[in-house]
Structures are given as structure tokens and as C-alpha cells.
Amino acid sequence: MNERVMQFRIGMFVIVAGLVLTMLIVWFGESPALLRDQVYLRARYADAPGVLEGVAVRKSGIRVGEVAAIQFDHRPNQPDGVLVTLAIEHKYSIREGSVPRLSRSLIGDVTIDLLPGTGQANLQLGRTPADAPIVEGEVAADPSKVVAAAMQAFDMVGNTLKTINEAADGLAKLSKNAEHIDDFLKTWTRSGQNVSAASQGIDQFLKTNEDEFRTTIANLKKVGEKLNNTLTPETQDSLKTGIARFSTATARLDAQLADVGPLLKDLGSPVNHAPTTDFGQSVRRFNRVVADLELLSASLRNRKGTLNTSGSIQKLLTQPDLYDNFNTMALNASQALSQLKAVLTSFRAFAERVSRDPSAISRGVLAR
Asked: Where on the phi/psi map is residue 108: left (φ > 0), alpha (ψ -120 to 50), or beta?
């Protein structure tokens, strides 16, 4: 009996726990919408930043519904946009002409406010999302962009104030320099008086020497006429031809100097510099030959600078017997090398036989 009571209690506890769990799931899940009496309205936005399902829909600051679904506007002959389905509780009415405005706070929270309409009748909402009417919504200005624009305006105001301060400083400097303007005008007046006096002196000088100036101008005219007579077209052509030939000769000379440049560079470069031209390399070889001849002549001289007759090279050049002895030694060495070559050939053949058959040595020893 006690066991059955215990089983009954456990069964009741399981049933009650299941009912409570089901109620919690229904209450905190998506199912409460099924238990509510809701009507639907679809709002079209060109752009809907930050909108999610469950976002609150408010009218005059009071929550009247929430966002039920979000989808792109794929209707034909319509521009791209977003259709946001609003689930409105049936007890709230919406006037015709109401506009769902999407607003966003500085911290990123998104809400949809139903602006009051101007119509007299209420808007007929759909019982299902598919039957919901479509109205055009509007997106409020982004507060972050407004703040950025305000910051730019403040910067522009700061720059304007800075410009005004600079203008005020310039005006103050101008007022300080006003005292120097009078001195400048006085100096300018004196300079004008001096220029006037100088012009009067020049005028008097021209009047005094007028005859001489006329004679000089007449002589200049004669010189110009003689120069024109001298520079006839034939003379001008000859002069042009001479200038052209001179230019051609100058160009050829420049080309020749450019060709000779590397050779001059090799001739003027230090000894350890590698020449780049054939002539430079020939000069370098000639220098080496001269250096070798200098060493040879130094070895042939004694300390007094005269020819050393007791040196080895001098004896080799002056005594034929010594040369013959060296020649004989070379011949003997050549013969010895020939004989050594034959011995090496025999030894190589022996080594090859041993390498092919090492036991041949032991067999030969045992055979003897």
C-alpha cells in the first residue's frame, strides 16, 4: 500500500512539473502571440538599420505591439526595400495616414513610433500577416550622424572665430603702423621733388648738347646704312653657310672627344685601375713588360750599377759549357721519367691483377 501511494505522489509531481514547464515555455517562448488577439500592419522602408524581431512598436509613447517579421520587398514593379510586419494588439486602433517612423538612439536601441494620422477613420488592419496592408514608413535621422555634423559645425565655428581673431590682430597692427604712413608720405614727397630736380637737370643737359646729339645720331644712321650695304644677301648666305659649317665641325669635334674620352680616362687612371679600351690594355701590358725588363736589368747589375759578370744569369749566357751541362741534365731526367713511366705501367697491371684476384699472390707463393 505504501509503495502505491509513493508511486501516485511521484506521478502527480511529474505531471505538475510538466504542466509548469509547458506554461513557462508557452509564456516565455513564441507561443504567447498565439494567445493574444493581434492584427497586422506591414511597413515598407528603403533601409531598416538595426531592426530585429521583437522590437517594440509604440504609439504616443505607449507600447502597442512589436515587430513580428522582417523580409525583403520582392514585389514586382517596386524598388528594393524592406517589409517589416508589425503585430498590433487588437484593442488599439490606428488612424488612417499614420506613419511608422523608425528611430535609433545614440546607444543603438531601435524603436518604431506610429506617428498620428490625419484621417478621420481607423486603418483596416489584417488578421494575418499576408492580409496586412502596406504603408510607407520613414527613417529618422541617425543621432550619430547628427552628432558628427554638429561637431563639424563646431569646428567651422572655431575656425571662424580664429579667423576673426587674426583679423583683429591684423587691424591692431595696421593701427600701430598708421603712424609710419605719414613718415612714408613725407619721404615719398621728397623723392618726387628730387626726381623733378633731376629731370630738369637732364632737360638742361639735352638742350645744351642738342647739336652734338644730332651729329651722333646722324653718324649712327650712316653706320647702319653702311652695315646694310655690306650685309648683302650673298654676304648673309655666305655667313650663314660658314656658321653652319662651324656648327657641323663643332659637332664632329664633340663626337671625337666623346670617343677619345674613355682612352684619356684609361691613360689618366691609376695603375691598379682596369682599363676599358684596347689601347689602355696594350699600354698596361707594355708597362708590365717594361717592369719585367727593369727587374731583369736590376738582377744583371751589381751594387755599383755596372754589369755583374760573376752572376748566375751572366755565366749562363757567357759560358756554353754550363748550358750544355744543364741540357744534358734535362735529357737524363727525361730518360729517367720514360723508364719510370714503364715501371709505373707494370706496377699498375700488377695492381689490377691483384685487385681482380687477391688469391693469386698466395697461389704464386705456394707454387714456388
From this structure: left
